[in-house]
Amino acid sequence: MISNEWEEYLAYVGTPEYFVNDKKSYPFLGRFTLNMIPKNNGFNRILTILARRYLFHNADGSIKDGDPYDRTDYARRALCAWCSIPNSKKATPKKEWRYNTDYRALHSEFPELVDENGSGWYIRHLHNIVDFVNANRDKVGSSGIKLADSIKELESKWMDKVVQYQVPIFAESTKGDKLFRFDDCIADALELGALRREPIDLTEKQKARLKTNIPEDVPIHVAETLFEYYLANKPADSEWCVLPITNIEAFLGSSSLSKSYILLLSGKVLERKSGTSNVCMARFYLTE
Amino acid sequence: MKPEERLAFLLEYLPEEGFREYDGLFADFRQGGYRVFGDIICDIYAENKKSSKEILRFKSDTPELTAMLDAYLTCKTGKDYIEAVATSCRAILSKIAPCFQIIRYAEAMGRRDFIFDVLLDEAEFYLIGGGNE
Fold first, then answer.
1. Site from B1, B29, B35 to mutate, A interface, most A CB atoms within 10 angstroms
2. Which residue of A74, B57, B85, B108 is 20 to 30 Å from A96, comparing CA positions?
3. What's the pTM?
4. How far apart are CA B77 and CA B88, in angstroms?
5. Is A184 within 8 Å of B32 when comparing Cβ atoms?
6. DSSP class of residue B16?
7. Could you tell me what percentage of chain A is helix, strand and coil, using 3-state DSSP and rounding each to the nearest 5?
8. From CA A7, how far away is CA A196, in angstroms rounded?
9. Cβ contact A145:A137 at 8 Å
10. Number of helical H runs and strand E runs in chain B
11. A242 touches chain B (CB under 8 A)
């Protein structure tokens, strides 16, 4: 269930199952979508989930002792490890003042996040996707093939992104008003606290009201997922909640949410404030 | 910054009473709220840097430069500011020597650009009006 954040964390560090049912679905992407990977969208939430795990939890999910504010450097190293991408063999050695992207040195501290060659979990997952697609080109849709064929470009973009993530939060030399960095997600993680391990269950009354009010074209599981996320993340002092549409689509395994479902649901069961197709603010009309 | 430290920080660095209504906003770190205060500071810093670059007058300016800058700043909208500054420059030069002599000094210094910007009348006389005969 989408409100089980520990489950979400496991999706970002475990071993995904690479399979395909038909040319229209892409389950081999794991908890990612075709929209996320080329444009590096939705990583705000992913990195925040990872930061929360290393700030607040032990490996078995139990809560750590001590002050999470004392573990910010540890969480930052974990993020570096997860994002690690090795330098090209032909690349000239980077100057000391340039940000590193190869964190093989963190393998002993985070063996589950980066291997001894400097490949972080994400870049290994990308390579596994490419290998799977190349081995099953007759079964995978054209968008998946296009993704696999552009792996060099994806790696280059990811390397730039990892450099960007390491820029300090108030660096004078950059116009950093819209950048997203490790410092941002660690700050968010400290505010959000430990990962939720008990999912939110909708009551029968809530499910019935949803079913009555949603348009016919919207699958009930989509509406229930959105509503479950809303109830789990709505602040106590506001009716409005930020919906990470990209990441909810990744959970659902379909990009139809941003393309049509959210538009159909607006005005029927929820109200949206202006946002992008990747994230918006919304409130549900029904909560009971 | 831990929640219990934020209000104390704001009271220390923004002690004026007028800022108290913003304590709730600046201390609320949810949904990226930790950036609000810092981003405002960075914006003010960037604005001040930009403003300082646009300052035309400095204490060390000579009276002559000040007079020409005044001519630029008081130039009416739609009027040629180069003409206004050139007129001020001519007025300053005329206190040193007549302009028909200044043009010769400028030519000797290889400053024909200055001649065409400031001493156009004299240049016209020497080039067209038979001044070289």
1. B35
2. A74
3. 0.78
4. 17
5. yes
6. S
7. 50, 5, 45
8. 9
9. yes
10. 8, 0
11. yes
